[in-house]
Amino acid sequence: MTGRDEAQRVDLGTPTDDPGQGHRVLATADSEAFTSVRRRATTREERYAMGKALRHDVPRRSLGDWHPSPGRADPVALLEESHRGRVPELVPVRVARMVASPYGFLRGSAVVMAADVAALPATGIMPVACGDSHLGNFGFYASPEGELVIDLNDFDEAHPGCWEWDLRRLVASIWVAGRENGRTEEQCHDAVLACVGAYRDEVRLLADMPLLARSYNRLDVGRLHETATEKSLRDEIERSVRRARQRTSDRALPRFTTVEKGEKGDKGDKSDLDRPGQRRIVQEPPLITRLPTAEREAVAVALDAYLQTLAPHWRRAVGGYTLVDVAHKVVGVGSVGLRAYVALLEGSAPDDVLFLQLKQARRSVLAPFVHGGSAWHAHQGQRVVEYQQALQTVSDPLLGWTTVDLPGEGPLDFYVRQFRNSKGTIPLDAIDAAALTDYAGIVGHLLAKGHARTSGASMIAGYAGKGDKLGESFGRFARAYADQTEADHALLVAAVRSGRMPASEGALDKVGSAFRP
User: Fold this and answer.
1) Torsion, Cα of 329, 333, 337, 339 (10° steps)
2) DSSP states of 212-223 as a string?
């Protein structure tokens, strides 16, 4: 094959420095095939045929198989390894959120599932993959025009990878979440079929569209309401949209901040951020904590460098604000323990405010199974930003990256985004069985859209076909891997009980909400 179909060979099953054996990797998102307009691409029909031919090497029924191998890595050991480099005091918070339920475990164990799915049959067609496409990582946010859209919204693990890896994680999360909500196995199966069917149909639809037209396809809240067929889901969408529209920087001001008290003339040794009358972010230890002076200054310097990664207009707009305060704020499940800062900036008036979030970025959990140990992105924050922009139709215009040179620790990679730009999600514990099936179809559509925007859509469509064979296979996998997730969760609970893994006090005495930690 030549041109845009040039292939390489790499072992996707085991992290290795020697990509000499194993699956074919076709149309990778990082391929040199996308660096020239002087070579003619293969036709759409040829690419469909290539995808269909892959059914011989990787039968679609084989995608349904899951049996843990005798040499499968200990999931608790993988989590322990992932805790290296995290803030030690926050690791127990992360573990507590994961032991809350099997779904909480699945949310925080992308590293475990990446190792599992990389060893399974795959076609080798590699668009940009989300890397953590579970059911809770789809949500609302404001477009640059201020319109509310829904799309994938977590890209910490984004990296070129097999499309099956993302779809496996999504369908497994649907089954685990369904069980946690009291759904029957048949209802979970129906939801997975809806998800895979929507993925199959959407990728075929987009594969038949001109390349540029695929890049404009998006789902705003108006179309979302029309797409949802179940009244219960439409009602929940309306409630979630109302909540999301309230999540803006100015509305966050009274909730997250307070004004420093003191005498006007009492300056003492206080820095500019500690002056009486100065607005400060409210502490809620251990989830929100203020920073030592040196660390705070390092973040301030990093924010100046971040401006250089923005488009000129947005650089000028954000550069018109002044940093008022910065704090460390724990977010999510998988990210807990990594550095995550919230910065409060003020414009030309006290009510003109902007909250920015800086999140530490490390190597994607997919990378070892694609590049082994030999290929690294120069900046992990830049990786997150560029792959987010690849997968989303529209992205936060303030998305950028920087490096924070922490005293005593050295430079760490971060990406930066708006903290409050009308973000929101559909609360999974608030939807019934019919709504879960309906919503599963919507997120399947969104995942297909993201993959089709990058590469491989025609080959995926040719492989997937038009019937339910793909859906039935993924349904078998989802049920089996839901069982595996419950077993792995039990191992983590046992590790906490034995003292091997630290967890916040009382973590085992109560079951929290893994849907909305």
Assistant:
1) -50
2) HHHHH---BHHH
**244-275 as b/e, with b when 16 or more CB fall inside 10 Å?**
beebbbeebbeebbeeeeeeeeeeeeeeebbe
Radius of gyration of the chain (CA): 23
Q: What is the mean pLDDT of residues 360-366?
A: 96
300-355 pLDDT per residue, tens: 999 999 999 999 999 999 999 999 999 999 988 889 999 999 999 999 988 899 99
The torsion defined by the Cα of 107, 472, 204 and 167, in degrees rounded to 10, comes to: 20
Which candidate, 377, 387, 380, places its Cα nearest to that of 401? 380
Contact 324, 346 (CB under 8 A): yes
CA distance 5 to 183: 44
3-state SS, residue 232: helix
pLDDT in the model for residue 515: 55
Domain ranges of the chain: 51-244+428-498, 245-418
If residue 170 lies in a helix (H) or strand (E), which one and from where to where?
helix 163-180
Sign of the torsion formed by the C-alpha atoms of 73, 75, 80 and 81: positive
Interacting residues of 40 by C-beta distance below 8 A, sequence separation 6+: 3
Residue 516 has pLDDT above 80, yes or no: no
pLDDT tens digit sequence for 47-66: 999 999 999 999 999 999 99
Tokens of 20: 């000499």
For residue 72, with 0-12 CB atoms within 10 Å meaning exposed, 13-18 middle and 19 or more buried, which class applies?
Answer: middle
Phi then psi for residue 18, to 5 deg, are -120, 95
> Tens digit of pLDDT for each residue in 178-190?
999 999 999 999 9
Mean pLDDT confidence for 262-273: 49
Is residue 422 a contact partner of residue 244, using CB atoms and an 8 Å limit? yes
DSSP 389-432: HHHSSS--TT-EEEEEEETTTEEEEEEEEES-BS-B---GGG--
Contact 60, 469 (CB under 8 A): yes
Helix (H, G, I), strand (E, B) or coil at 24: strand
Question: Phi/psi at 424 (nearest 5 deg)?
Answer: -170, 165
pLDDT digits (tens, 9 = 90+) for 62-80: 999 999 999 999 999 999 9
Q: Taking a C-beta distance cutoff of 8 angstroms, is the pair 93, 336 a contact?
A: yes
pLDDT at residue 2 above 50?
Answer: no
Give the span between the Cα atoms of 276 and 257, in whole angstroms: 14
> Residues 486-507: pLDDT tens digits?
999 999 999 999 999 999 998 9
